[in-house]
Amino acid sequence: MNLPPTGVPTGDLLAELVRLKQHDLPVRGGQVTAYVYDTGRAEVNDAATRAYLEMLEVNCLDPTAFPSVVEMERQVVGAVADVLGGGHGIFTSGGTESIMLAVKAARDTASAARRSGTPKLVLPVTAHPAFHKAAHYLGVEVVAVPVDLETYKVRPGDVEAAVDADTILVAVSAPSYPQGVVDPVAEVAAVAAAAGVPCHVDACVGGWLLPWLREAGAAIPPFDLSVPGVTSISCDLHKFGYAPKGASVVLFADPAMRRAAYFASAAWPGYTIINATVQSSRSAGPLGGAWATLRALGREGYVELGRATLAATKRLREGIAAVPGLRVLGEPESSLVAFTGDDIDVFVLADEARARGWFLQPQLSYAGIPANLHITVTGVTLTGVEAMLKVIAESAAAARERGPVQLPDGLVDLVAGLDLDALDDPSFAELAAAVGVDLRPGQGQPEMAAVNTILDALPAASRESVLVRFLSVIYSR
């Protein structure tokens, strides 16, 4: 885009936005089973939107200048603490930032005297990559522990064996995103406490879901700050809190750990710098949206959504199990469902579903867990669950008829052996086009089965290199 010589009228700008969004996935209705969360209640979305816009230009940088920020954050964090076992919290922009602050607080409070080397973070292989991102930025080494390949849960004994004098934090998930199962929080927290190490529960997905599922009748194990040994927990409100994007909370059992998450600097002659989050200037719009959503739904509203979500998840699991060749992985305790195909290429199935207007999220194989498709069940899913199951069955049949992706001989080895740093973006785009993925602007959504098959055959480091180049190409001018 070139900056226009004169201002563009609002109507023209909005019309252009509509054009730009023509290939976007729909954010309402439940046909997109990842990335977006929908209550199915227009009035809740309207309340959040109005509050978001009301707070849009308020800056969270200085709470003394905008006391509304303090009061709203105290109310939002207080509501989360009341549900998740108490604690002292920070409102953040999302799960990644919440996790980063938890890792920072653990690193900064760990006694340097007890460490002999690089600080370490012990977590299951199913833990969210946000932990790896935090470790990368904060100079922490990740020690990944395998999970049981029947239950997909981490074993406390394996965690205990991985903890040493350099461990600054142990993490578990409630639930883990890939298969929707809850790690044995109480047992792992006890292991961490016995070693004198903090334990963080990543409840970014489940923190504002599992309590309502429990009230709706689900058997949910203890997982929050009420569990002995749990020292911090993260909970996203822009997931099953149904708030607009940019809303999460991290809670600490000890207020001293919350203070360790803060950043302050007085080593300059300018204005006072004290940040509760990674960001400095940030809009209070997400805070306003979260505040309004919590109040618009209330406890009764969340319990009702929990009941609908539980019913939809049960029906979805039953329906998938009834499709020949498909099976659900593990026994999900939440509303995240992952399924694989015994004689069906799930990547082809995903493309077939996309052609029918539904997005099912592909997940690559890793650490003994097979490639699979992931579905996030939300409050709106129940109204369309039969339509979803019909699409899954049709897509499975079509995928079986098409057969698995057949890659040219030697292609995976070629990709694995490429020096991607020696390729410029146009050359990488040509390589992508050779396997049927046209990354040029305006080409629409390509089928991704071949790409996912190639990625699935590569080791993790090579996958990451390819993904970095993919991102670079699509954002190149």
From TrEMBL:
Cofactor(s) needed by this chain: pyridoxal 5'-phosphate
Keywords per UniProt: Lyase, Pyridoxal phosphate
Modified residues (N6-(pyridoxal phosphate)lysine): 239
An example Gene Ontology biological process: carboxylic acid metabolic process
An annotated Gene Ontology molecular function: aromatic-L-amino-acid decarboxylase activity
Pfam families: Pyridoxal_deC (PF00282)
Similarity field: Belongs to the group II decarboxylase family. Sphingosine-1-phosphate lyase subfamily.
Name this protein carries in UniProt: Glutamate or tyrosine decarboxylase
Species: Nonomuraea maritima
